[in-house]
Amino acid sequence: MSKTLIEQVSSVLRPFQYLCTSLLLDGIHQAVIINQDGLFATQQQLHFCQRYQWTALGNELTVIELPLEQGNITVAMLTADDANIPEMVEVSALNGIQLLLVPFDIQEPCEVDYSLLSRATENRICIAAATREKSFASDVPTENTNDNIYGKNKVKAQKSTGLIINLTTDSALLTQWRARQFTGYVNQALVKLQYGKITKAVVHPIAACNKR
Question: What distance in Å separates the CA atoms of residue 208 and residue 113, rounded to the nearest whole number?
């Protein structure tokens, strides 16, 4: 099925169009990039994950030079729970990547609310992370349910998806396209949450720091 998917996707892609997802290839769970010619790049899952405990693990991060119309961009891919490991994202940044691609299956809202956002700002890299939308129960009740047996223990469902994290091209403290009161955040990332069938956002890989 994975090979059939690659063939179907590549047949409709145009030059400089890419699809990044995770697939099962030859019994191994890995992230892939597909282009008009088929399978362009792969990245094997690197760390043990209970959900994919059956897969063999890789031991090397693949750094990819992705051709675009205006030049190449340096990217890497992390799947399963690899992107939740701060040191793994730091290794990616140390290898000079500008954009981290994360096809994953979200398990907790904090993965997008805090973890990925922190990894992007700490390492000065852009991140594009995609997952199926999931709903998680919030610990905060929807309303005051004191003495209400019907409303007792009600919780608010919180929907979580992937996101695109962009870096400001301006090295100043404030976001470049709108004036705002300084809040104490330096190099605050620009976030667009995954929404609907298609989510579009511009990223500035040139703003990523090369830590090599």
Answer: 21
Q: Two tokens at 10?
A: 């590549």
31 beta partners: 22, 43
Residues 6 or more apart whose Cβ sits within 8 Å of residue 20? 31, 32, 33, 34, 77, 101, 103, 128, 130
Residues 39 and 32 sit within 8 Å (Cβ to Cβ): yes
Report the alpha-carbon distance of residue 44 to residue 158 in Å, rounded: 31
CA 76 to chain CA mean position, Å: 11
pLDDT along the chain (212 residues), means of 10: 95 97 95 97 95 94 94 95 94 94 92 91 93 77 54 64 85 50 62 90 83 52
Q: Are 90 and 54 in contact (CB under 8 A)?
A: no
- Residue 181 tokens, joined: 């009161």
The beta-strand segments (E) located in 48-143 are: 64-68, 71-77, 99-103, 126-130, 134-137
CB 21 within 8 A of CB 31: yes
| Residue 15 structure tokens | 């030059």
Residue with tokens 């992937």: 162
Quote the CA–CA distance of 32 and 66 in Å, as a whole number: 13
pTM for the predicted model, two decimal places: 0.82
User: For the chain, which residues make up each domain, given as ranges?
Assistant: 55-207
Residue 201 Cα to chain centre, angstroms: 13
